[in-house]
Write a structure and sequence with these properties.
The two termini are 29 Å apart. A hairpin with a 4-residue loop joins strand 32 and strand 33. The chain is built from one helix and 52 strands.
Length: 719
């Protein structure tokens, strides 16, 4: 990166469905019968499986008589299916009985009062294809993944392609994996449907159709995108930037602005015509992976920045610098600038960077922005907490002004009563209620010269959803009976990163009362791995893991991290959180020199059951979400597939040309693991944060390396 700065940016297989094998006893004889069967106990219509029984004690006659038990298990043929009375061979019915759950019974021949039972539930096969909807560039290639549930169903499909007018393009089923197909778009823009249908004829047409929009480019025409970037130049100095690009009617990059933070303050660069996004020539990922080039000018000076980029199905971009002028990572999304400035709006924010001694500094806070015209307004009701290399401070009252730049459309300037100035652009998102996954977000950088009172920091500002009674403990978790689960993503000095799966209980509605916070976390502190399966530990009574509202503005104090399994237990660290919505906000460590900063994201509760591995197969664009100077950022085009039989595979491409291979698992909490064999052998944890309940698909997850001795960045993956 040039010194001038750059576009700086128990495997619970449905275990909620696991079979329940129960043994009986023979009226004092001591005989017990235990049944073993498929796991999970879901079967699909027409499926064949054989159950086995074990009779104890040893030496007892092992013969049993098999039968079906349930009020619905009647008729000819039996509504519950057929079961061979001597072998335990079972054939599921052509359609689920009502109710769908019943019992397989094995009765001992030695004692007909001794029996065992096994719960079975017949489920129709359902199919989902991911991505469920995607925009493709003309002539580009996109890989699709089909998954059948329950997991026991064959993962075999018939693929089909339809469109309104020929040519439709070409759809090629995977040669080695029946759950994948590669689609090559035609040279003309149109709407196409890609469908997968289960090969099992169970009386239910198990099919799913993905909508494909073939366009001139994956960049939307006549649109504005907002971006942010952070990293390091070739002298290892930190760099940050925010900016916008605007596309033409033909989706080429027509103009834009990039505001770069340097030691002497912020500098604006014009994004010139001739900048481009070019898809990769790598076949199966050409629709998701490519190269972003920005030609920048300031006066008579021109520079060119190049990034390797991955695109999600909705067109969001994650990118890393690849021009040899530095290292860094960033994100770009279609701007929703029309959502900003529609009346008084409050924003929670989280910033991080360095102070004048190049020690880590972090901010978290809240600002209310009140427009007085189309080009600016006033700031009120502000507050912030800071941590500068372990020294915490708080400013309780902040005011200020903000105004639009008169030269560069899309760039805004903000001046605060603390004597600090910031520049920002509008990213994406909406003004939705409660815990929606895409809130309106602004990308910001400080714009002052770096000195003892002006750290160089950057980050995001997210619209704060109003709460009728303010942000109390109960408002932060509106479903107090079941708790509210979140994924917190933290990064600190010297490659210290962590992922936390936590649940708040919503107790105590006023200031001063504490709510409970429980869960698990993984931490990679520069290669030292700490995996905590549960906090608090059983020995921590009362629990030191709490949260409490400070007034009703949205400021909370959470007790997080620590090590409950140490002897003696290490107490958690106090974090301040500024909420942007229920179960969501920006976090700042208040006690350590690591200066951990990050965000808490709501993890949706599934309508029924829990997270399962069959909900993860699909194509994901993954990119570094936070990193230190010693850890190289990366972008990945990941393909997660399930060929059946409880196998879940990872393939893909990293940084344009490196092959990714491995396997994955996921548990009922939405956390799991990815074990890679290439490009290097490594272990990684995954924490799911967004779920499509309609199609039973995990949309987003964070990933972090847990290989001992190896520092890790945090990666964000999105369908």
């Amino acid at each position: 990166m040039k010194n001038l700065g750059l576009l700086a940016m128990g495997l619970l297989i449905l275990a909620l469905a696991g079979g329940c094998a129960k043994g009986g006893n023979g009226e004092g004889s001591g005989i017990v019968v235990t049944i073993s069967g498929n796991s999970p106990s879901h079967v699909y219509p027409g499926q064949t499986t054989t159950y086995t029984a074990t009779v104890t004690p040893a030496g007892t006659n092992q013969a049993v008589i098999w039968s079906l038990m349930g009020s619905q298990c009647t008729g000819t043929p039996n509504a519950c299916g057929t079961l061979d009375s001597s072998t335990g061979a079972y054939v599921a019915p052509a359609a689920p009985p009502s109710p769908a759950t019943f019992e397989i019974v094995a009765t001992s021949v030695a004692d007909n009062t001794a029996f065992g039972t096994y719960d079975v539930s017949v489920q129709l096969i359902s199919v989902v294809v991911t991505p469920t909807a995607v925009t493709m560039g003309e002539n580009l290639v996109q890989q699709f993944t089909a998954t059948a549930t329950p997991d026991a169903a064959p993962q075999t499909f018939t693929w089909s392609l339809t469109c309104g007018a020929a040519p439709c393009g070409q759809l090629t089923p995977g040669a080695n994996n029946a759950g994948t197909a590669v689609y090559t778009a035609p040279a003309s823009s149109q709407t196409v449907s890609v469908s997968a249908t289960s090969t099992v004829n169970d009386g239910n047409l198990a099919s799913f159709t993905s909508k494909v929009t073939v366009a001139t480019s994956r960049l939307s025409p006549s649109s504005t995108y907002g971006f942010q970037f952070s990293g390091y130049d070739t002298s290892n100095n930190p760099v940050a930037a925010v900016g916008t690009i605007t596309t033409s009617a033909t989706s080429t990059i027509a103009s834009g602005v990039e505001e770069v933070l340097t030691a002497s303050g912020a500098q604006a660069w014009t994004v010139d015509a001739g900048s481009s996004y070019v898809p990769s020539s790598n076949n199966d990922s050409s629709n998701n992976l490519g190269t972003l080039t920005l030609n920048l000018s300031s006066g008579t000076t021109t520079i060119t920045n190049t990034y390797t980029a991955v695109l999600t199905s909705s067109g969001n971009i994650q990118m890393i610098e690849s021009d040899g002028e530095g290292t860094g990572y960033g994100a770009m999304q279609k701007s929703t600038a029309g959502q900003f400035g529609n009346g008084s709006q409050s924003f929670a924010f989280g910033f991080s960077g360095v102070d004048s001694s190049l020690q880590r500094a972090g901010y978290a806070g809240l600002l209310t922005m009140i427009p007085t015209s189309n080009s600016g307004g006033n700031i009120s009701s502000g507050m912030l907490d800071a941590n500068d290399n372990g020294t915490a401070s708080k400013v309780s009252t902040i005011t200020g002004t903000y105004q639009q730049d008169t030269t560069f459309p899309g760039l805004w300037h903000m001046t605060l009563s603390t004597g600090q100035d910031f520049d920002f652009v509008v990213g994406g998102g909406t003004l939705q209620a409660k815990t929606g996954s895409s809130p309106l977000t602004l990308y910001a950088i400080s714009s002052d010269a770096l000195d003892s009172t002006h750290p160089a920091i950057s980050g995001s500002m997210t619209y704060q959803v109003p709460m009728p009674s303010g942000y109390t403990n109960a408002a932060f978790c509106p479903s107090a009976n079941s708790g509210c689960t979140s994924i917190s993503v933290l990064t600190g000095a010297n490659a210290n990163v962590a992922l936390i799966n936590g649940t708040t209980d919503g107790t105590s509605s006023g200031t001063g009362g504490s709510g409970g916070f429980t869960g698990n976390f993984d931490q990679n502190n520069n290669g030292t791995i700490l995996s905590v399966s549960a906090f608090p530990s059983a020995a921590q009574t009362p629990s030191p893991y709490t949260y409490v509202a400070s007034g009703t503005s949205g400021r909370y104090v959470f007790q997080m991290m620590g090590n409950p399994n140490a002897t003696p237990a290490t107490l958690p660290i106090p974090f301040v959180l500024y909420a942007s919505g229920a179960n969501r906000g920006y976090l700042l460590d208040q006690a350590s020199t690591a200066v951990m900063t990050g965000a808490m994201n709501p993890q949706p509760t599934k309508a029924s059951g829990a997270y399962a591995p069959a909900e993860l197969p699909g194509t994901y664009a993954a990119g570094t979400a936070s990193s230190s100077s010693g850890v190289a950022p990366s972008v990945e085009n990941l393909l997660l597939t399930s060929p059946g039989g409880g196998v879940f595979n990872v393939t893909g491409t990293e940084n344009q040309d490196e092959t990714v291979t491995g396997t994955y698992s996921i548990q009922f909490t939405g956390t799991g693991a990815i074990t890679l064999t290439a490009p290097t052998a490594s272990t990684n944890v995954i924490y799911a944060i967004d779920f499509d309940s309609t199609n039973s698909v995990i949309l987003d997850f964070f990933m972090m390396g847990t290989t001992s001795g190896t520092p890790s960045a945090l990666l964000f993956a999105q369908q």
